[in-house]
Amino acid sequence: MKIKHDFVTNSSSTSFIIIVNDAFKKDDFLKAVGIDKESEIICLFEELYQSLSRNEKIVDDKDIAIYQFTAETQKRVKESLKKGKKVFHGKLNDDESLFICHCVYTSFEIESNGIYIDAIINII
């Protein structure tokens, strides 16, 4: 029998789906979330964009990952793929900055300017 003596923790993550017409671009994302380029908190949303971009992978309508989302989001993914849009799936983890941790523990949905993001809470 082995006994672990170090620090043990549960981690959390938030799964997300991103649907875009062409590519997931930072300027489009910032516009979609309503952050002005002169905002004092723009760095937080640039960090969120980087985390979303770093953790994304392209999916198709047979990808099992989409089935953890609502029936409405699954339908949106399938329809978007048929229209030739790009669909990405990934996870944000709570081992990043405080702001990213906040995003992990908060479900959110963004829909604006050709970008749709559905992020749900997942406990691992």
List keywords for this structure.
alpha+beta, 4 helices, 124 residues
Domain unit count: 1
In which range does the helix fraction lie? 25-40%
Work out the radius of gyration.
16 Å
Dominant shape: globular
Tell me the distance between the termini: 25 Å
Amount of beta strand = 25-35%
In total, the number of strands is: 5
Q: How many alpha or pi helices? A: 4
Q: Indicate the mean pLDDT.
A: 83
Structure class: alpha+beta
The order of strands across the largest sheet is 2-3-1-5-4
What profile does the largest beta sheet have? 5 strands, antiparallel
SSE order: EHHEHEHEE
Poorly predicted regions: 1-9
Quick summary of this structure?
The chain is of the alpha+beta class. 32% of the residues lie in helices and 27% in strands. Strands 2-3-1-5-4 form a five-stranded antiparallel beta sheet.
Describe this structure in words.
The radius of gyration is 16 Å and the shape is globular. It has a 5-stranded antiparallel β-sheet. The protein starts with 11 loop residues before the first strand and ends with a strand. It has one domain (12-123). It has 124 residues and is α+β, with helices and mostly antiparallel strands. It is 32% helix and 27% strand. Strand 4 and strand 5 (115-123) form a beta hairpin. Helix 1 crosses helix 2 (42-54).
Set out the fold topology.
Elements: E1 12-20, H1 26-33, H2 42-54, E2 57-58, H3 71-82, E3 86-93, H4 98-104, E4 108-112, E5 115-123
